[in-house]
Every structure is written in C-alpha cells, then in structure tokens.
C-alpha cells in the first residue's frame, strides 16, 4: 500500500556506500562514478553530503566503508529508480554473496518523496530478506549513524515520513558507537 506523506518539495534521498575495490576502482572512485551514473539515469542531484569513513556493519573484519547521502529529484517512479540503482551496483561490481559483507557499491533509496510503501516499522538490528521488496522509507535509517550524519548535511530539516522525527532528533537518539559508527569525515 502506498501512502503519500509530506516531504518538502517531493525530494529523493539516496544513501551511497562502498568498502571494496571493483571494476570502477577504489571505493571513493566508485562513489564518484556512481553519482554520474545516477544523474545519467534520471536523478537530478541537488546536494551531496560530505564523505564519511564509517565502521562496517554485519560481518566482522571488513575494511571501513565510505558513505554519503544525496538529495535530488527525479521523474522516475520509485520502482524504476530502484532498478536503475541495482543496475548501477552491478556495473560497479556488486555481486551476490553473504549478507552484510563487503560491497563494491551499495545504493539505497532512503526516502522517495515522502512515500510510505510496504512499511512494517523500523528494522531491529540488521534486517535481511532473501526476497527484496522496496520498503519506503528505508527501514534502517533510524539505527544507522552512517546514514543520519550525511543526511543532516543535505537535508537538516528533513522529517521521517512515518515517525515525523527530524533528522537531528534521529541523530541525537542513535547510538554513536559500534557497527556503523562514523569514524571520520574524509572530504
């Protein structure tokens, strides 16, 4: 069920992450190329957050991630945007494998114009499903410092479409240590 919510100006928030080299080069180079591919595919990027080095989530002994969030607009419907992002991930070298492992590129729709789709509540711990359905807003936003800090860079007044909490309120509530913690700003 799709329930429209009020997100200012109908914007789209996309999370980007990478911690493994791939055919597009280092994680940082891959993120830069992913931005260009998103724009070529129909996402108009209005703002790009700082780049953050963050602790990996999931499997132990992974290198740190590089994470960012973009704010943009698109005329693509949410499922088409998701297909574009999965295609970009594949071109960048993302392959199937163990859940929560290393990634050449990981792209997530965090919020699509305030829509609520397949929402069952915020994720508890590390969610993983073998069959992926599009869930909006992304169910992990509230538990992920590596998403919330860059989100504050691009949309400090954003409110969660379901909880109505601001990005700042969510940032103040999220644990800052452990998996997913922000290690440093790198850009």
Write a structural description.
The chain has 187 residues and is an alpha+beta fold. It has a single domain (2-185), classed as Alpha-Beta Plaits (2-Layer Sandwich). Helix content is 24%, strand content 22%. The chain has helices spanning 27-40, 78-91, 145-154, 167-173; strands spanning 2-3, 12-18, 43-48, 52-54, 65-74, 106-112, 116-117, 182-185. Strands 2, 3, 4, 5, 6 and 8 form a six-stranded antiparallel beta sheet that branches. Strands 1-7 form a two-stranded antiparallel sheet. Helix 3 (145-154) runs antiparallel to helix 4 (167-173). The chain starts with a strand and ends with a strand.
State the oligomer. Answer: single chain
Helix content percent band: 10-25%
Give the N-terminus to C-terminus distance in angstroms.
39 Å
Mean pLDDT: 88
Shape: globular
CATH class: Alpha Beta
CATH topology title: Alpha-Beta Plaits
- How would a textbook summarize the main sheet? 6 strands, antiparallel
Number of helices: 4
Radius of gyration: 15 Å
The SSE order reads EEHEEEHEEHHE
Structural class by sheet pairing and helices: alpha+beta
Number of separate structural domains: 1
Strand content: 15-25%
Low-confidence stretches: 1-8, 126-131
Per CATH, the architecture is 2-Layer Sandwich
User: By CATH's scheme, which homologous superfamily applies?
Assistant: 7,8-Dihydro-6-hydroxymethylpterin-pyrophosphokinase HPPK
* DSSP strand count: 8
């Amino acid at each position: 069920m799709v329930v429209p919510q009020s997100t200012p100006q109908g914007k789209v928030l996309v999370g980007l992450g990478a911690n493994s080299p791939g055919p597009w080069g280092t994680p940082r180079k891959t993120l830069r190329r992913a931005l260009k591919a998103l724009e070529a595919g129909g996402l108009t990027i209005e703002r790009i957050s700082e780049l953050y080095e963050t602790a990996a989530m999931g499997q132990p002994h992974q290198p740190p991630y590089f994470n960012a969030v973009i704010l943009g607009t698109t005329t693509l419907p949410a499922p088409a945007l998701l297909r574009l992002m999965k295609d970009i991930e594949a071109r960048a070298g993302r392959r199937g494998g163990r859940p929560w492992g290393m990634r050449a590129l990981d792209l997530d729709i965090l919020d699509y114009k305030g829509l609520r789709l397949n929402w069952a509540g915020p994720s508890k711990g590390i969610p993983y499903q073998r069959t992926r359905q599009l869930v909006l807003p992304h169910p992990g936003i509230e538990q992920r410092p590596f998403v919330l800090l860059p989100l504050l860079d691009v949309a400090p007044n954003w409110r969660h479409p379901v909880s109505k909490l601001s990005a700042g309120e969510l940032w103040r509530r999220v644990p800052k240590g452990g998996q997913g913690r922000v290690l440093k700003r790198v850009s």
